[in-house]
């Protein structure tokens, strides 16, 4: 009987920074990066939750601040003493509202948070990164699935691929890539759906081609692959279990 050969880790000696790494997709990405030999640096808004997350993944360093504050974001990257390899930004949220009920100030803030934070993070991080590293951002798939209450989310989702492609050219050899997620079963999803969460899970299990709900580990696996594959830049990668392929999913 032969014993399978254990493969070497894919990120040995590299440093992965996760902006919004205290829960959900960010935390799962940090966890997977650690299993691949990387040191991780986590940031988040909530100091207590961030501290717990850091213990879970044995983070090298943490920083508690609001990533939507440009001065705080710039100060964080300036404070990093060593070169870094990869940055994943999961911080920020979406804004969903009927046009009749829309708070335009909140809508503007959501667009600014989604798009401007990507510009700011790239500006502040690119000069700190070793060649071959990637800045990795997240968006949704709302631009390709029009629906009620999705106008602001769709604007951000439509703009991000163009933004990422342009940034990838401008800050090369640093790489810039984008994950476009459908429903992902995270604490944020639970807070948005409340009592409707189980109903949504059941619907997706019944209708998605993969016959299961996409979880943070699915997104994290793709994120780490993009970190390790240095041929990938300026591109958008869907991770939605085929949700876009199914009418009404």
Write a structural description.
- With 249 residues, this protein is of the alpha/beta class.
- The protein has eight helices and seven strands; from the N terminus they run E-H-E-H-E-H-E-H-E-H-E-H-H-H-E.
- The protein has one domain: NAD(P)-binding Rossmann-like Domain (Rossmann fold, 3-Layer(aba) Sandwich), CATH 3.40.50.
- A seven-stranded parallel β-sheet has the order 3-2-1-4-5-6-7, sandwiched between helices.
- Strand 4, helix 4 (104-125) and strand 5 form a beta-alpha-beta unit.
- The N and C termini lie far apart (46 Å).
Highlighted features:
alpha/beta; 249 residues; Rossmann fold; globular; 7-stranded parallel beta sheet
What would you say about this model in short?
Helices cover 43% and strands 15% of the residues. With 249 residues, the chain is an alpha/beta fold.
